[in-house]
Amino acid sequence: MTIASLQAGILRLKRETDTCILAHSYQAREILEIADISGDSFALSQAAAKQPHKNMLMCGVRFMAETVKLLAPEKTVRLCNPKAGCPMAEQFGRAALEAIKSQYPDHTIVAYINTTAELKTLCDVCVTSSSAVKIVRALPNKNILFIPDSNLGAYVASQVPEKNIVLLQGGCPIHAAVTADEARAAKAAHPGALLLVHPECTPEVVALAEYIGSTAGIMQYAKASSAGEYIIGTESSIAEHLQYECPDKRFYPLSPGLLCPDMKLTTLPDVLLALRGKGGEVIELDDYILREARKCIDKMIAMGES
């Protein structure tokens, strides 16, 4: 089948099955084209909770589908490719975090949204990459245990020096692998370009950037800026999507290694099979996780997540 015929079949089936297709921004272009909603992880979850559809199909990774289920427990949520996980979200198990928590009994546990639903049950408040600084600054406790991304946590610590922030040795292996040498080489190759990076990159890379922000923030900045060229320091699909949306500007991936293999697992045939009920995985969370993991997300929303 051609891409066009696959997309046509998907568009028909999603209407027939009352399904809303959610696609993370790191998905391939042909998947974004058939999605009802696209964006970063928490934006997708918030939007999904407001949709009238009874079925949600997540073209992304497992923790994102879990977050949709937490915010819309009455809906049937399916992960399009069951193998699509997230090394950062899954690097700590419940027992490991319980042991770490016991070492820091007077610390507020701040969880990056990129964590499993099970880990969220042990945390006090959730944050996104765009809200982490604001929320950590507003917390009454000076002592913070930030999980799991040490690079995002280091960026937050640099912006909120009045807090005592404990970091774990965790993070996104894709963003963390980018080196300062690569950033300097990219800037030398494109001297007129602005470097826009995600705070999951190392502090050494972040220090070289003209803009630091979430995936959505990077895209918004590039669209609004009057500059003509940009080096994109996050998953390489973002440079591709921006090139489609801003054809008069030029976008360069910071590193050839900025490819998320888990995001690339989802294909149009996967979407078609999931809509036919022959693929994907229905996300099931027990009552305890639905109740307890939701608390840290609700607190994030109460503290001003937009």
List the helices and strands and how they pair.
Elements: H1 3-16, E1 19-24, H2 29-32, E2 37-39, H3 41-50, E3 55-59, H4 62-71, E4 76-79, H5 94-103, E5 108-112, H6 117-120, E6 125-127, H7 132-138, E7 143-147, H8 150-159, E8 164-167, H9 173-176, H10 180-189, E9 194-197, H11 203-206, E10 211-212, H12 215-224, E11 229-233, H13 237-245, E12 250-253, H14 268-275, E13 281-282, H15 287-302
Outline of this structure?
The protein is of the alpha/beta class. The protein has helices at 3-16, 29-32, 41-50, 62-71, 94-103, 117-120, 132-138, 150-159, 173-176, 180-189, 203-206, 215-224, 237-245, 268-275, 287-302, and strands at 19-24, 37-39, 55-59, 76-79, 108-112, 125-127, 143-147, 164-167, 194-197, 211-212, 229-233, 250-253, 281-282.
Structure overview:
It is built from 15 helices and 13 strands. With 306 residues, it is of the alpha/beta class. It has 3 domains: 3-84 and 265-285, NadA-like (Rossmann fold); 94-173, Rossmann fold; 178-253, 3-Layer(aba) Sandwich (Rossmann fold), CATH 3.40.50.10800. Strands 2-1-3-4-13 form a 5-stranded mixed beta sheet, with helices on both faces. Strands 6-5-7-8 form a 4-stranded parallel beta sheet. Helix 1 (3-16) packs parallel to helix 14 (268-275) and helix 3 runs parallel beside helix 4 (62-71). The termini are far apart.
